[in-house]
Specification:
With 188 residues, this protein is an all-alpha fold. The protein contains eight helices and two strands, in the order H-H-H-H-H-E-H-E-H-H. It has a domain at 2-58 and 112-181. Helix content is 79%, strand content 2%. It has a two-stranded antiparallel sheet with strand order 1-2. The longest helix is centred in the first third of the chain and has 30 residues, at 26-55. It starts with a helix and ends in a 7-residue tail after the last helix.
Length: 188
Amino acid sequence: MHAFIDKVVFQADNFFIFFYRITGSGFVDYLIGTTILAFLCVIFGELSISFAIRFNKRYLDAMSKEVSEKEILSMAAYRVGDKAGYKALNKEATDVWGKQFFTMAAYSAGILWPLPFALAWMQTRFAEVEFALAFPLSLVFGKSVGYVFTFIPLYILCRILFKYLRPHLPYLKGVQQLLKKQDIKDTR
C-alpha cells in the first residue's frame, strides 16, 4: 500500500509542477502554476459539495418541506388564537430550519477540503521561497512572505471567477438550479 501511495504522490507532483514550468520565467511560472492549483482546488471543492448535495437531496428536500409545513401550521394556529400551538409549531419549524442551515454551512465548509492538500504540496516545493514586500506592507507582514501569502489571494480570486462561471458549466449548472429551487441563497 505504501508503494501505491508513493506512486500517486509522485504522479501528482509531476502533474502539478508542470504548470510551474510553462514559460521559463520563475515568477510568471509561479503565478501561473499557483493560479491553476488554486483553480483546481475550487473545482474539486465544488464537485465534492455538489455530489454531497445531490446524494442528500431527499434529506434536504424533506427538511425544506418540514419547515414549510410547520410554518403554515404555526401561522394557522396564530390566526385562530392558539398561542401555545403557535409557539410549539414555531419552535419546531425553527429547530428544523436551524438543522437545515447548519447542514448547508457544513456543506459550504466542505468546499475547502482541497486547500490543506494543495498547501502541503506547496510546502514541499516552495517552503524556502520568500517574496520581499514593499514599505507599507512590510510594516504589517514583515520584510518577506511565503507561498501561503500568494496562494490565498489567488484562491479567493479563482473562487470569485468560478462564481460567475458555475451557472454556465454543464454539470454545475444543474447544481445551481437545484440550490435555487430549494431557496438556498448562494453565499459561497
